[in-house]
Specification:
By secondary structure, the chain is an alpha+beta fold. It has twelve helices and seven strands. The protein is elongated and about 75 Å long.
């Protein structure tokens, strides 16, 4: 009878001391060093980084400052259908979103608009902790990562695995360093001369024959296309980035000290967070940056030839100089203009 009174429950901290035999997970921390681009893509698609990202621990988190390269070095040619001027999209984050919504052999219509603010103080506080996202699925996936990280911290604490707790704390410290630097670098800078009240209509030629027509106020278009998204790092910021990167490598080296249950928790956290963040990025339907937003409108229209698209837009705009400068048509003897045949890249 006495044996029946003995509780059969094993405390969590006691269970964690009994590793699963035949499995070695001492290299679990190396997962954090995988060069995944999910964190870089998230930074680009949201235009910055928030302090809530501290709880988003994914492989490749140490490469967040490389978010300016997520466009694959593509800076597509752009034609202003209203003026005929040809230039480039200089913002790599905008290019990434346009690549995301583009479709080969189709013209995708998109609009850029100003995001209204409620109160300056509230807007500033909100943007520091939360990146607005109209997609419920994307937001829910992101919040699931935050909840998963918090749950993992509670789990390793209750299990008494203080090495695992320290490892998670180091990863979060690295994330905070990168978040601060990204927020400092992604401030509104030069965007050209203001043109209030002027409407713009742009045709953007992406690689793989993806065509985007972007409309909106000229000042809003300049905010997301012209100038710099993230400026170059100062010496202090670069030093802080190096420190944050080394913290992730140190973390990988220390992972072998954690108990096996802590190592399993770390692996599950990194793998699930990467999958959820990738899913969240994929479901982002509106791009926001510098108080402006871009979203696709209507259905993409297919064209058999690029020339068909050019002829249709020439007929709509009443001018062909932009098509000549983009190289979509040749300048004939009967053309309205024979200037600027070269594409400005």
């Amino acid at each position: 009878m006495a044996s029946q009174n003995v509780s059969s429950e094993v405390p969590l901290h006691t269970w964690s001391d009994n590793p699963i035999t035949g499995i070695t997970l001492d290299s679990a921390g190396l997962l954090a060093l995988a060069d995944l681009e999910v964190v870089e893509e998230r930074t680009a698609l949201t235009g910055s980084s928030t302090y809530l990202d501290t709880f988003v621990l994914c492989p490749g988190m140490h490469r967040q400052q490389h978010a300016t390269g997520v466009n694959g070095s593509e800076l597509p040619a752009v034609a202003a259908l209203t003026s005929g001027y040809v230039f480039r999209v200089e913002n790599p984050a905008t290019v990434l979103f346009l690549q995301k919504i583009g479709k080969t052999g189709h013209l995708v219509n998109a609009e850029v608009s100003h995001v209204p603010g409620i109160k300056a103080a509230w807007t500033e506080l909100q943007s520091a902790w939360w990146a607005p996202n109209p997609s419920f699925i994307s937001s829910a996936s992101y919040l699931a990562i935050v909840a998963l990280t918090m749950g993992t911290i509670v789990f390793v604490t209750l299990s008494g695995d203080w090495w695992a707790f320290a490892i998670l704390s180091i990863l979060m410290l690295s994330r905070i360093c990168n978040i601060i630097i990204v927020r400092r670098r992604s401030q509104v800078g030069w965007k050209g001369a203001p043109e209030p009240g002027v409407k713009g209509d742009l045709l953007i030629l992406l690689s793989q024959d993806r065509w985007i027509r972007l409309k909106g106020d000229v000042d809003d278009l300049k905010a997301v296309i012209s100038g710099q998204w993230m400026r170059e790092m100062t010496f202090g910021e670069h030093s802080m980035t190096v420190t944050a990167t080394m913290l992730v490598y140190i973390d990988a080296a220390l992972a072998s000290n954690a108990q096996q249950i802590g190592q399993i928790a770390l692996m599950v956290l990194l793998l699930l967070s990467a999958g959820l963040l990738s899913f969240s990025n994929d479901r982002i339907e509106t791009f926001q940056m510098f108080g402006r937003s871009i979203k696709a409108v209507g259905q993409a229209k297919a064209y058999k030839r690029r020339r068909d698209l050019a002829d249709e837009l020439i007929g709509e705009t009443g001018r062909e100089d932009w098509a000549i400068r983009l190289g979509m048509i040749n300048a004939g003897s009967d053309s309205k203009t024979d200037q600027g045949v070269q594409v400005m890249m």
